[in-house]
UniProtKB/TrEMBL annotation:
Organism whose genome encodes this protein: marine metagenome
Protein name as annotated: Gamma-glutamyltransferase
SUPFAM superfamilies named in the record: N-terminal nucleophile aminohydrolases (Ntn hydrolases)
Amino acid sequence: MLHRFLIVFVISFNAWAQDSYIDYPSPYHPTINQRGMVVSQNIDSSKIGIEILNMGGNAIDAAVAVGFSLAVTLPRAGNLGGVGFMLVYLKQRNEIIAVDYLGSSPRNSNIQDLFGVTLPRNYEKADRDIVRYGYKASTIPGTVAGLIEAHTNFGRLPLSSVLKPVIEQARNGIRVSYDLHMALKSEPQLRRDKESRKIFFRNGSAVAENTILKREDLAQTMEKIAAEGKKAFYEGEVAQKIVDAMNNNGGFISLEDLKNYKPRFSEPIRTAYRGHPIFAPRPPSGGAIVVLDALNILENFDLGKYKSNSTVTYHLLGEALRRGHMDRSRHIGDPSFYDVPVEKIISKKRARELAKTINFKSASSYKSMSP
């Protein structure tokens, strides 16, 4: 039955992807289907998800296939070196489970070695791009472990069947999309990396739109994962190649880091927006706090009084999100080391207090919203 699972599937990705922004016209019509639906940032990856559903797979099988496929079609949206979160709804148990496969910092990394200055005293002298780009910025990759653990616990088809069409896609090649071309073109740091240049650039330029891009190396890695599970990525040949790349480029990830990595399962956090339940991953997810915080604040305003594209509507949305980001910056951290006051942050009482601070005639000052 395709209705056994409802899944919200989010993959975070390498730091270079965070600046890749392409503006699209938004569809204003709802899309409805009674049997199943697959949505991702690449149509070819979404088609693989549909293929998995048609094979008798459930939503988890399809989501895992799409997650691996995005490493081929649009790695800024999903890749084997990335991290992420997942929400899974088990209909038969009426239960929602959050899967956290965010990356952990390598054991041998520390702030002093990372920035080369004493923090927080010399904060303004720190080059913050160090934690955005390159090998030093890399946390332990969680995507493979997260997807495989989700499949092991909730999937229906064998992993080999789920990954077979993805492996074929990588081996046979994909037609480079506008998205992929623009993402590569707009990120100069990729040109500075030897492996990235070899894969994604031709004569110094990003692979052109509609070029056929084959990824035999990625296909072979996925074949190992299909046969051996997550061990194929976090131990053995693949793990050693990751560590060699780290050692050769100033990174911190070790074989021990990879072998010991484990995704985490937990209950999600929740709120209700005008009576509709909203679920999201727990911290260290920061985006979840922003969204739930903003929705709670917006609930205090009669948005129906204003047109959807009115200045007032955009102003309220912006101010609510700013307050959500303020709470994120002030409070979100690794719950293994910091007790995040989640219930206080997303309480309706706090939302009412924050809503009162919104001025309809002016934007909030930077200082009032700073961490």
